[in-house]
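quick q for whoever's on today - can somebody do inverse folding on this one?? i tried earlier but teh output was garbage lol. C-alpha cells:
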C-alpha cells in the first residue's frame, strides 16, 4: 500500500486464521487485535497454535517508528476475548519500544459463553494476560465505548458492540460479543467487524448503522455463519477481506458470491 496515502491506510497483517489490523493516518497509528499467540495454558495443550506475536511486534517496529525511534500507538482495540484476536497484545504492550496511549477492551464475562467454550478455550486466560500487560505498562483501559466516535489523524472511527440486545437465555459464545469498527476517511468507508455473525441478530441490527461501505472485513474469518447475504446486500462492499486461507472459507460464505 502507498505509504503517502493522504487520508490513511488499513493494513491487514498475514497472521493465518487470526486478526491483526493496523490503522495509519497522518502519522498516527492504532492496532485492532493482535493475532494468535504461542502462549497457551499448560492444562490445555490442544490450544498449541502457531503464534504471530513476535511477527506483529517486528512489523510495528519496522513500520511505525517515530523520529525518536519509538512506536506510539494512539490506541489498541481487542474486539473480543479469543486468543486469535487478543493473543499478541501482552507481547506488544510489554515491548519497551512500543507505547500505547489507550486500550479499548470490553470486560469478559464467562456467563455469556457456553459451557464447552469455557471448558476447552482459553478466553479467561488470554483476557487476564492482556489486562495484566496493559496495567504493567500503565496503559489506561476503556471498557465502555459502545457508539463512541474518535479520530485517528484524518480518520473517523465509530465503535459498535455486538450482543448487547440479546435477551434470550442462550450463551452463544464470545464471538457474539465482538466489537465492530466503522472507519471513515476521505469519503471512503470500511467496516471491520471482528467475528460478528448472525447468531443473535447483530448483522440485521447493525447494518443500517454501518450503511454502504467500500471495504468489509468479513466476520469470523469466513467460517460458518459469518456473513449473510442480507448483510452483503445492506453494506454492498466493493472489496471484501477474509483473514483466512481460501481453503478455510466455509461453503455458506462462498455461496453468497462474496469471493466472485
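ok took a stab at it. sequence:
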Amino acid at each position: 500500500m502507498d505509504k503517502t496515502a493522504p487520508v490513511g491506510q488499513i493494513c491487514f497483517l498475514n497472521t493465518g486464521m487470526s486478526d491483526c489490523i493496523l490503522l495509519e493516518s497522518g502519522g498516527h497509528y492504532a492496532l485492532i487485535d493482535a493475532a494468535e499467540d504461542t502462549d497457551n495454558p499448560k492444562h490445555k495443550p490442544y490450544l498449541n497454535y502457531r503464534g504471530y506475536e513476535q511477527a506483529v511486534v517486528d512489523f510495528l517496529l519496522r513500520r511505525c517508528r517515530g523520529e525518536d525511534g519509538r512506536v506510539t500507538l494512539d490506541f489498541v482495540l481487542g474486539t473480543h476475548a479469543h486468543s486469535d484476536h487478543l493473543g499478541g497484545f501482552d507481547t506488544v504492550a510489554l515491548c519497551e519500544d512500543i507505547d500505547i496511549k489507550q486500550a479499548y477492551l470490553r470486560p469478559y464475562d464467562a456467563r455469556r459463553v457456553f459451557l464447552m467454550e469455557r471448558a476447552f478455550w482459553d478466553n479467561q486466560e488470554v483476557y487476564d494476560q492482556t489486562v495484566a500487560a496493559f496495567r504493567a505498562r500503565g496503559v489506561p483501559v476503556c471498557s465502555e465505548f459502545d457508539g463512541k466516535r474518535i479520530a485517528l489523524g484524518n480518520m473517523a472511527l465509530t465503535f459498535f458492540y455486538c450482543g448487547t440486545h440479546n435477551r434470550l437465555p442462550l450463551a452463544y459464545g464470545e464471538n457474539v460479543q465482538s466489537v465492530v469498527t466503522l472507519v471513515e476517511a476521505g469519503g471512503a468507508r470500511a467496516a471491520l467487524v471482528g467475528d460478528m455473525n448472525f447468531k443473535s441478530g447483530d448483522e440485521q441490527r447493525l447494518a443500517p448503522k454501518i450503511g454502504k461501505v467500500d471495504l468489509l472485513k468479513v466476520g469470523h474469518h469466513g467460517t460458518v455463519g459469518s456473513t449473510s447475504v442480507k448483510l452483503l446486500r445492506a453494506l454492498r462492499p466493493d472489496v471484501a477481506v477474509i483473514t483466512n486461507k481460501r481453503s478455510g472459507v466455509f461453503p455458506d460464505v462462498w455461496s453468497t458470491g462474496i469471493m466472485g
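fwiw Helices lie at 53-63, 83-86, 89-94, 115-120, 123-136, 202-210, 229-235, 251-254. also The mean pLDDT is 91. so keep that in mind when u check it
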